[in-house]
Amino acid sequence: MRSVNLLSYSYLPFTHYFISLQRNQLLDFIIHIVSFLALSQEFLQLGAAQICPSTSPYSADDLADQILEVLNFFGLGAVMCMGVTAGAYILTLFAIKYRERVLGLILVSPLCRAPSWTEWFYNKVMSNLLYFYGMCGLLKEILLQRYFSKEVRGNAEIPESDIVQACRRLLDERYGSNVMRFLQAINRRPDLTSELKRLRCRTLIFVGDSSPFHSEALYMTSKLDRRFSALVEVQACGSMVTEEQPHAMLIPMEYFFMRYGLYRPCHLSDSPRSPLSPSCISPELLSPESMGLKLKPIKTRVSLEV
């Protein structure tokens, strides 16, 4: 049985569903998780020290180069990379700069262009809130609206979901100054559009149709080489597909990893039913070439009625 090193890089510290995949043996292969770069960077991890105010500002290139330092520290060669939103951008930049170190990319609600005026403005507002008030309630609400759909954020009649409540608690445990440094770096990110055609690693993109980055994911997919990329859209879901509908990712990821020899023959009926069960998964995704040499963009929408 083969294994692969998986590097996870996300803006919010949620990557537990991969452990769930192993526990339930849904894919019947071993994923060796070597590092969780929770909240995207070592200075954003739980327990990380506060950055010295005199430290020079970080750039997107600096964040990508730090990934190389992590891989070299652990003595790793090529890895499978997974990133969410801004983390997906950094991993894409890393794959462009260091092609030989990336086996494949799994991107969730990715970014690839420079910030729009709207995003730039909100990032500025959040940076100012962090500077003057720290991780305040208003800042948390902005972040929650950016990453979760209204279905899980709740309202006057429906309480917040457990995952949103957990997010609130985790945000309280981060240094506001560290998060501010990261936001400032992402707000100065360059456009990667002209470089996307150079990517030769296989790329699987997930995005929720309620995500504010939905159009960005569609744009990125249109610029990638169609032989090596695929798109999965998930209905009634925000940016954090990994948290709102993780089961919608199982079958696409299973077929994605099959190309790397990370599977053993099994019957589909042996797996627990998921939102992407054979009854509602796109036939294109199940075709032999969908995750093989002629990988092509697909558009798979998850049915709410399972």
UniProtKB/TrEMBL annotation:
Pfam families: Ndr (PF03096). The keyword Transmembrane applies. InterPro entries: AB_hydrolase_fold, NDRG. The chain crosses the membrane at residues 71-96. Keywords: Membrane, Transmembrane, Transmembrane helix. Belongs to the NDRG family. PANTHER family: N-MYC DOWNSTREAM REGULATED. This is Pollen-specific protein SF21. It comes from Gossypium raimondii.
